[in-house]
Design a protein that fits this description.
57% of the residues lie in helices and 15% in strands. It has helices spanning 2-12, 24-35, 38-61, 88-143, 169-174, 185-191, 236-282, and strands at 72-74, 78-80, 148-152, 158-161, 199-206, 209-219, 225-234. A hairpin with a 5-residue loop joins β6 (209-219) and β7 (225-234). It starts with a helix and ends in a 6-residue tail after the last helix.
C-alpha cells in the first residue's frame, strides 16, 4: 500500500493520467497477486484503482494542481496547454483501460498463483506424508529391537529411547562417557564433537542384569555433530552361559586330572597287589 501511495504521488507530479507509466501499477498488482491470497490480491488491485481514480478526479476538479506532461499544437492558436486531463471522455477511457488492465492482470496472476500454491501444498503434504511414513517405519524398527537404543542430543539430554531402554536409559546416560574425560558435562560432550567419529564400549550392571553399552557420536551429511547414540545389549544370559561353560571346562579339567592321578596311583597299587598275592601263595597260612 505504501508503494501504491508513493507511485500515485510520483505519477501526479509526472503528468497524471497523461503519463503512460501509469501502468507501472500493474507490476505492483502482479507481485501482490503472487505473494498474497486471492482476496487480499483483489483488495490490493481495488486500492490501486481507488488511488488512481481519486488522483485523476481531484486533478479534474482542480482540487489539486495538474502538472503538465503533453502539449498539443493547434494550427489556429499555436501551442496550447494540455487538454486531456480536462477531457472527461479521455479520462473515462483511460480509467476504464486502467481498471480492466488491473483486474485482468490480477485475475490471471491470482489464477496461476493459486494453482501453483495448491500444487505446492499438495507437494508439501505428500513430502510430509512420506517423511511421516519413513519416520514411523524407522521408529517401528527401533522400537521392536531387543537392544535398548537411547539418543542423547548435543545438550546431553535424552531425546529418544525405545521400550527396551526404559530400565537402563538413565544409567546409560550417566555412564556413556569415558571415565578419563573431564567431569563437567559440557567438556564430556566435547569429546564426541571431534572431527572423527568417537565411540567406546563398556559393561553396565542394572537391576541384576548385565548390559553391554556402546556409545557412538552421530554426525549429519555436512559433518555437524547431532548427538550420541547409546546401544545397550542385555548379555545376562550370555554371561551366565559363559560362566556355565567355564565351570564345565573346569570340571572337565578336574576330571582329567583326577583320572591321571588315579592312573598314576593304580599302577604301583596293582604291582603291590600282585606281589602280595604271590607272597601269600609261597608261605603257609600259619606264618604270621
Amino acid at each position: 500500500i505504501s508503494d501504491l501511495i508513493i507511485l500515485t504521488v510520483l505519477l501526479h507530479f509526472a503528468g497524471g493520467a497523461e503519463n503512460p507509466f501509469l501502468f507501472y501499477f500493474v507490476f505492483h498488482t502482479i507481485l501482490a497477486s503472487i505473494l498474497l491470497e486471492r482476496g487480499e490480491s483483489y483488495l490490493f488491485a481495488f486500492a490501486a484503482i481507488v488511488l488512481f481514480g481519486t488522483m485523476i478526479l481531484l486533478e479534474y476538479l482542480g482540487t489539486i494542481p495538474h502538472h503538465c506532461l503533453l502539449y498539443y499544437y493547434n494550427p489556429f492558436v499555436g501551442i496550447m496547454g494540455p487538454e486531456p486531463w480536462k477531457n472527461p471522455v479521455y479520462l473515462a477511457g483511460t480509467f476504464f483501460v486502467f481498471v480492466t488492465t488491473m483486474l485482468i492482470s490480477t485475475y490471471f496472476t491470482v489464477s496461476v498463483a493459486t494453482r501453483l500454491r495448491e500444487r505446492s501444498r499438495r507437494l508439501r503434504t505428500l513430502q510430509e506424508e512420506l517423511l511421516r511414513v519413513e519416520k514411523d517405519k524407522w521408529k517401528a524398527i527401533v522400537e521392536c529391537m531387543q537392544e535398548g537404543v537411547v539418543f542423547v542430543d548435543t545438550e546431553g539430554k535424552i531425546a529418544f529411547y525405545n521400550a527396551s531402554a526404559t530400565a537402563i536409559k538413565e544409567t546409560a546416560l550417566k555412564e556413556c562417557y569415558p571415565s578419563s574425560t573431564p567431569k563437567t558435562l559440557g567438556e564430556r560432550l566435547d569429546v564426541f564433537k571431534t572431527e572423527d567419529p568417537y565411540s567406546f564400549q563398556r559393561v553396565l550392571m542394572v537391576g541384576g542384569r548385565v548390559y553391554e553399552s556402546t556409545a557412538s557420536s552421530i554426525k549429519d551429511s555436512e559433518g555437524k555433530h547431532l548427538g550420541v547414540v547409546l546401544v545397550n545389549r542385555d548379555i545376562t544370559e550370555r554371561r551366565e552361559m559363559e560362566r556355565r561353560l567355564m565351570h564345565q571346562e573346569k570340571m572337565t579339567v578336574i576330571g582329567k586330572l583326577s583320572s591321571g592321578i588315579a592312573h598314576e596311583l593304580n599302577n604301583p597299587l596293582g604291582v603291590i597287589s600282585m606281589f602280595t598275592q604271590m607272597a601269600l601263595k609261597k608261605i603257609s597260612r600259619t606264618e604270621p
